[in-house]
Amino acid sequence: xxxxxxxxxxxxxxxxxxxxxxxxxxxxxxxxxxxxxxxxxxxxxxxxxxxxxxxxxxxxxxxxxxxxxxxxxxxxxxxxxxxxxxxxxxxxxxxxxxxxxxxxxxxxxxxxxxxxxxxxxxxxxxxxxxxxxxxxxxxxxxxxxxxxxxxxxxxxxxxxxxxxxxxxxxxxxxxxxxxxxxxxxxxxxxxxxxxxxxxxxxxxxxxxxxxxxxxxxxxxxxxxxxxxxxxxxxxxxxxxxxxxxxxxxxxxxxxxxxxxxxxxxxxxxxxxxxxxxxxxxxxxxxxxxxxxxxxxxxxxxxxxxxxxxxxxxxxxxxxxxxxxxxxxxxxxxxxxxxxxxxxxxxxxxxxxxxxxxxxxxxxxxxxxxxxxxxxxxxxxxxxxxxxxxxxxxxxxxxxxx
Length: 401
Ligand code: NIG
Ligand code: FE
Fold this sequence. Notes:
This protein has helices spanning 81-88, 98-107, 110-126, 142-153, 175-183, 185-190, 208-220, 237-243, 257-264, 274-280, 287-292, 313-323, 328-342, 369-372; strands at residues 3-13, 26-35, 38-44, 54-57, 62-65, 67-69, 129-132, 134-135, 159-164, 196-201, 224-225, 227-229, 248-251, 269-272, 297-299, 359-362, 379-384, 387-389. By secondary structure, the protein is of the alpha/beta class. It folds into two domains: 3-65 and 349-389, Urease, subunit C, domain 1 (Roll), CATH 2.30.40.10; 68-342, TIM Barrel, CATH 3.20.20. Strands 1, 2, 3, 4, 5, 16, 17 and 18 form an eight-stranded mixed beta sheet that branches. The relative contact order is 0.16. N-(iminomethyl)-L-glutamic acid binds next to helix 2. Fe (iii) ion binds next to loops.
């Protein structure tokens, strides 16, 4: 059983509610001990055991939990640069852009789809994402959705069936037939391959009745619910998600007071995806309003080739702090523990004893630098289950990994 001492940590964000006053449980001049991939101890460095197999010297820098990205669409082919350029000159984002990715994804081989997914998972990991959720939703036939999920599940256990992303062109005249397919033959094929069922409940996608039917059918096959809600305008998405007992309602860009009250009185997390608002030039969701109402908030990337082509959670944290009224502490919590709640995981998202040792070393004295130094690769080291993985930035010892 291998053991690791992470020593000389200037500021250790544990998210351990037993530590300190706030939810982030920050320890200064701290150390952490890991055994067999699990955190076994955190505390003042003067009290740490020194007899471990390995030691990492954090040189006074900050250590934070690995990011939990609870919303990503990584099984796709093709590129939507032109759509992005059109948006920059004023064209509005709509759900319709999804069709071009569907066409490219259907054309692509499994090997090409998997190579692209693998590239993105590595990219995410190098910027500190130690858990990532992955949706289907660019196949939209029984075969292509099943193929997407087969690929995704080789890379993450957080796999989501999103057959109800949009109505594909061949069903445009008979959308209810497509909903039937999503809830019957496609679901039968896909449910053994996924943990979650998701639906895009918005204009240009599925209405409240259709979305509720998809989540209900998924639940009957053992899939837990999550939903794309209130991204493109006000609407019933949040209500549908909460009524279905969804783990998370994602986007939450356009919410009424009633939506916020509903979220606050439910166990449904509001997952905010500010990189999508950045890329689509939309208004940012008001995280402050949600937090002040007592809603649990997660932050995720929404990585996809249309509305948010980034895997970078530090970028999302910077946007959340600059544009959405979150404090740096809240943004980090939401990108770690909040993401874990949105995935109903109790083994990740914090560095309390017993949790999986997923952590990130920053080339910075404090986690605030995630927002304070936007665009700078300060993720200097990444460990997943206690194992060091390649990181994007300089490490605290001044070398480049
Ligand atoms: O979460 N809203 C729906 N789905 C994605 C966008 C997908 C796309 O544009 O390809 C999203 O933003
Ligand atoms: Fe999405």
